[in-house]
Design goal:
With 165 residues, this protein is of the alpha+beta class. It has helices spanning 37-55, 63-72, 118-131, 144-149; strands spanning 3-4, 15-20, 26-30, 76-81, 87-97, 102-111, 136-139. The N and C termini lie far apart (47 Å).
């Protein structure tokens, strides 16, 4: 069930959306205008650093770059909390604007919890962004992500090759 927070001015809402799963973690979309944003970003920073290192992309962006995107409001910060309100994972969703369609990009996903429930949370997040008019979700990652995401309908599309100029 998606739970939107109503009746509060936008900048006062700590979270724009909460997605509690029946068993497991509670996933929350953080309001980038809320005063607690910097505190939340600092608590997620280690997740971002690990994600960048594992992605083998630290030569073109780093955790600070991801933080700046969230602060500017050009990417969305989601946090997974356990029942004790302890952070168990963080992810950043960015946006892809192409002439034929617009979608979302998983820019960073990090967790240290086996309770991070991809098979149940991904469809809920897809539903949220689809309702906003986005038409696809794209992510890059190591080969293991294909195994995680294939049961959710994701298919292998490309291999990314890069050369520094």
């Amino acid at each position: 069930m998606l739970t939107e927070v109503h009746g509060i001015l936008d900048q006062e809402k700590e979270f724009i959306l909460e997605i509690p799963l029946p068993r497991g973690l509670n996933y929350k979309f953080v309001n980038y205008k809320h005063s607690s944003l910097f505190s939340k970003l600092s608590k997620c920073y280690d997740y971002f650093e690990k994600t960048v290192q594992r992605s083998l992309c630290s030569d073109i962006y780093n955790a600070n770059d991801l933080v700046k995107r969230v602060v500017k409001g050009t990417s969305d910060l989601w946090i997974a909390y356990d029942k004790n309100k302890k952070i168990k994972g963080c992810f950043i969703i960015g946006f892809a604007y192409y002439p034929q369609c617009t979608g979302i990009l998983a820019e960073a996903m990090g967790t240290d919890s086996s309770d991070f429930d991809f098979k149940n949370i991904v469809p809920k997040i897809e539903e949220y962004y689809k309702d906003l008019g986005y038409e696809f979700w794209e992510m890059t990652g190591r080969k293991g992500w294909e195994k995680v995401m294939a049961p959710l309908g994701y298919e292998f599309k490309t291999i990314t090759l890069r050369k520094r100029l």
